[in-house]
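Task: encode each sequence below as structure tokens.

Item 1
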Amino acid sequence: MTDDTGLLEHALGSVPRRQEGYTTDDNARALWACSVIQRMEPDASERWLKLADIYLAFLLWLQKEDGTFHNNVAYDRSPEAETASDDCHGRAVWAAVNAWAELPDEGSRWAAETILLRSAAAAQQLQFPRGWAYTLAAYSRLWTVEECYPLQMTRPELLEKLQAWTLIERLEGNLMDLYSTSAEPGWHWFEPQMTYGNGVLPWALYSSYQATGRDTVRRVAKESLDFLAEQMTAKEGWIRPIGNRGWADRGHRSRWDQQPLEVMKLALAAREAYRVEGSQEYKELIRRCREWFHGENDCHRPLADPSDGSCCDGLTPNGPNRNKGAESTISFLLTEYMFAELHCGRDELEKRAEMLNI
């Protein structure tokens, strides 16, 4: 799925559909995946680092002078018409922070730092919840991570230039206000409707709690995640993502089509909850998310193919959607990574890493 420009967005089956081009969204997800997975497989880290540099170059290329990111690009590298996306901005910032924190090469980390510094002013202008969530998680990680590799700018200097603490407090407050407006007995959520990428909202608050230490934030993070996990669990016990054919509200919940991205975001929130709460229920939730990809789902059919690391684009009433695009494949790889990180010993971790190919 990756060429010398970046990660292609869609596939027909397993064959890339070049005519549908690239997105910054997918290349940011891929950069995030490479940044963390390369730690799992030291003997093959060079492969991951080469891929990471392709995705870093893509983000550098698509970042505009004002620090925002163009998202959609045709196969001939020409930008496509679009409306600016807060979500895209947040994903790119999150990917850049992971690259800055995880990649060992100074040049790559310098590129990630450049992306972050250029994005800072635009981050102050974000207006939508999922853009807030990604950026809040990114800045919170930057605030709490230990600096592992030397770079020209120290972490405190970078935090000061980004005005990180001010933005953490503002975005955390935005999500808390959103929750207080929409949540009520029987509906512990940030919005009147559950739509897409839901797990990023409790994930972001669990992330910011580790920076700010506010107990009210931890309470809302737990309450909302537990509610989301309940809404995404079938009575039989397996994961049932909220479908994109109508989403969910207080009186309705769509069953189809189920998206791999929703399962990965639930696992992501559960991993952060496990770090804070230490509860085995969140470790078990990550396991159930992982098993959804392998057939523990409403159709009892696997979506993931461990032989090549690919993943079907969704689950329909008739079974898996056989197309295997970038978003779905990376969602599987990241879920597999999170499961392996918490459940496997070193030997098993390396064995699993060998099959993760983007």
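Item 2
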Amino acid sequence: MSNDAAINGLFGFNNEHQTEALPGALPIGQFNPQRCPYGLYAEQFSTSAFTRPRHENRRTWTYRIRPSIAMGDFSKIDKGQVRSGPITEVDCPPNVMRWDALPLPTEATDFIDGLITIAANGDVRGQSGMGIHIYLANKGMDNRSFYSADGELLFIPQLGAFNAITEMGELSIKPGEILVIPRGIKFKIEPLDGPIRGYICENYGSPLELAERGPAGANGFANQRDFQYPHANFEETEGEHQIIAKFCGEFYQAKQNHSPFDVVAWVGNSAPYKYDLSRFNVLNTVSFDHPDPSIFTVLTSPSAEAGVANVDFVIFPPRWMVAENTFRPPWYHKNFMSEFMGLIEGTYDAKEKGFAPGGMSLHNCMTPHGPEADVFDKATNAELTPQRYENTMAFMLESRYVIAPTKFALNAPQRQKNYLACWGDLKKHFNGQP
């Protein structure tokens, strides 16, 4: 049973969390005592280099029934439709692209077997860029668990709720929430009430962190108190268990004779967490002009160049639009950054037709894009009264690196080959008059 709500709001990203499933399981005052309580093993889990500055250092001490090395050797297995950056199996055209939602599986399919990569960028071995996957599942993972050594996983559910059972406890996730699982944490996904579908950003680069507020000051956007972490909740079960690892872009399996979810207590600042997107405090214009979409950034993975993200996770939630004498939808633009978008629910204001929940679009570096022709006509002739955007939740993964689609994505029947047609009726309005 999940107890995640009980620690809502207690800690920020750089503060330590502590939780124990048995009283006294967590050592006090020393991380690695000669003998741990309950005969447990101490094991440190690090998602940053040991010598990172204190405010950037991410590590957690776990106290578990057996250390993680109590397992067999890994052997390579088929990775199905999962790919990693750089994508070299096909060329990356600069065309705008859009896809309908991928269909739900008709045969029994768990999370691992239902993973499909749509695009990727950067270099998985060089720890830069990201992979963008779709997950499709209709059953639990039984005695299988999964972890990615290549990057942390940002889950963006679109259909169906699930439990994420992790080494550090359990979190229940539904559409409208996100889940982040750090690089290297084992987990399994258990659908709760039917099939599930959603998006995953596999971040190869620096761990995701809260976006800075800049001149906005101390409040607004995503607040630390709204991120929820799991309570320790261990399994003491024997029997064959299969661990699937994603490592250097490949899949490997290893077997062990017990559950890997045997952490009885933990303390640290690197652990799975969830966030309810409805708690994002939107800041927007109250005068004129359409601000840059960066004002909707929830989490960011910075690169070595300040202000130029490895990946930004941006949302377009319900909000008021009140800008005066302004073209309110996103403007026409060509970007230095590359953009991958998905739709969780409702309608996106710049694409009222053809972009449905579960769908995706890709607009790469310097490829022009913007509102479809009908949206332009509607927005330029609308009476600019205060307008509330309801029933909407779109997101964008924006990156400094070109996002290359996979061979599967380029050839998928869900790809809309006529996507450009939505701009086909853009008319010449120039009349030579000011």
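Check on item 2: The mean pLDDT is 94. The chain has two helices and 28 strands.
End of task.
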